[in-house]
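Subject: two folds for Thursday's group meeting

Dear M.,

Sorry for the delay on this. The cluster queue was jammed most of the week, so I only got both jobs back this morning. I'm pasting them in the order they finished. Each block is the input sequence followed by the predicted structure tokens. Could you check whether the formatting survives your parser before we put anything on slides? The first protein is the one we discussed after the seminar.
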Amino acid sequence: MNLLLLGFLFFIPILLLLRRGRNPSKRVPPGSLGIPIIGQSLGLLRAMRANTAEKWVQERISKYGPISKLSLFGKPTVLIYGQAANKFIFSSGGNAIANQQTQSIKMILGDRTLLELSGEDHSRVRGALVSFLKPESLKRYVGKMDEEVRNHLQMHWQGKQQVKVLPLMKTLTFNIICSLLFGLERGKQRDQYLDSFQEMIEGMWSVPINVPFTRYNRSLRASARIQTMLKETVQKKRIELEQNAASARQDLISCLLGTVDEDGKQVTTEKEIIDNIKLVMVAGHDTSSVLITFIIRLLANEPAIYAAVLQEQEEIAKGKPSGEALTWEDLSKMKYTWRVAMETLRMFPPIFGGFRKAETDIEYDGYLIPKGWQIFWVTAMTHMDSSIFTEPLKFEPSRFENQASVPPYCFIPFGGGARICPGYEFSRLETLVAIHYLVTRFSWKLCSDNFFNRDPMPVPSQGLLIQIWPRRLS
């Protein structure tokens, strides 16, 4: 009886949304909202974990066309597909569509992240983050990133015969985040963050029913622990800045605390700092670790591309005195390696898709998207479109020799337009530094199969188990 009542209460708002303000000359897209609350969520999640999510989406596109309705994570949703859809998502103003994530992401990360903010609030918070993450600011942190990578390899790779790549890359990127973004050195506090952080991200894409022993419930509790730790860290940084015991440029938290407007007022609130630090933790940790892992996987399968990457990295290594850290200038020479990374992102984008919210009734492609509905798009669908990328299943880094030759809004691993990820340059730096030391210090071959699933990011079977052995410069 209680379940029937709960379903009824959730179904009523959906009916109201369907009816409210509908333009009689337009109709909602084809499709079905499915079971109240659940909708098609479990089907999508199952497909992601079975590595058939793209097929699942393609079947909907084949059945209903490039726009269809469904229900995901408790809300009525419209799926849109194609270059025009991507342009609509990333170039529409805040009056039409707004940032909004699934309820699970919103509750776990907070409601003041860049994923939720729009208009002036989005510009204000994004500007504060970019002041730290822009290239001219990141130049000064290359040496620190270099140190974290070398320490990681010495601790976890040197002297080993086999390693699981993905767990180690997650450890590496988390340590880089702690060092550059929080100013946290190695030790107990880092370990406490890592344990709670890993539990927090497990329920990011989940049905938002908060009952014990579910992923969502565990993630909410882990998020609360991280929030408490972040509050303590923010207060400590604030006191250090007030006492001139720290620089506003030493890490991201200090930078956000020290960014003020023309009246001397802090640009971001404490809640905005905490929520967006959690967002940056997720973005900088998971996406980069997945990217580096899949580059290693692809280099093992593509000997010619591996040889070209190795040659480029050895030329850089030969020109440096032994033990000297990489510099910004060194990274700027890694053009082929970054093209390999871009092609990896095309074929295996860490982010499967994303959500927006219709702020008003929207007419799109001959249909009505009702106010309040979610809008869902999938990154990989244009990446693997043969009309955009010839032979999309072929790994071909030369596609990115001339970035202008790629049609706009077709390659979107970092978003696009004004919504492009502010951490793009940070991800590029940590990826290039990591690949440099991996290919110049080790050789490897795969021990496990090539299967992977999404949970919600790509996860290779056995964490990508590889056999490794040391190598020397040619």
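Second protein, same layout:
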Amino acid sequence: MNDVAPLQTEVPPLAGWWRRCFAWWYELLLLIPVILLVQVVYQLAFQLLTGAAVTAVSANAGLRALNFAVLVAAVFGYFMLCWRRGGQTLAMKTWRLRLDGAGGSRASWPALIVRFLASALCYLPCAPLWVLAWHDRAWLPWAWLSSAWLTAPFVWAWLDREGLLLQDRIAGTRIVSVSKRTRSA
């Protein structure tokens, strides 16, 4: 007869709304160097392969679209690697947060992909629309609308019965608080 009791797995508490919000802003700041590095590599590769000037990318709509797709793929890769390795990006480590699947388990690949896509629907339109508005004032109302849409996941969290962000509700994931002891283990 085995006298050892089964281990009790405790589900960490959901991180607070403000903590998730500040971590999100910090994540944006940390994404800037990632995006800039990818942009430099893209521009260098383009120049080496074609011999064209740097301005050739901005002069061609197809090359701009390809550039945008490369940047989105890089951001996708960054989040997938971080979330799958330990459930934390650098910003999440700083704010002692972790992305978990349902019941405190590691989030599955499909859940991570769904979470990224749901997030992208809210966050991705903002930057291109502001760039368009910078060049053409007719896009300004759309840029402001995208900024309002940017807040949708956080407004959803206020209304959600469990306080989950919109992308977490859709993907079946949670952002939880991690104690200092758990984080270092």
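Two things I noticed about the second structure. The chain has one domain: 17-184. The chain has ten helices and two strands.

Cheers,
T.
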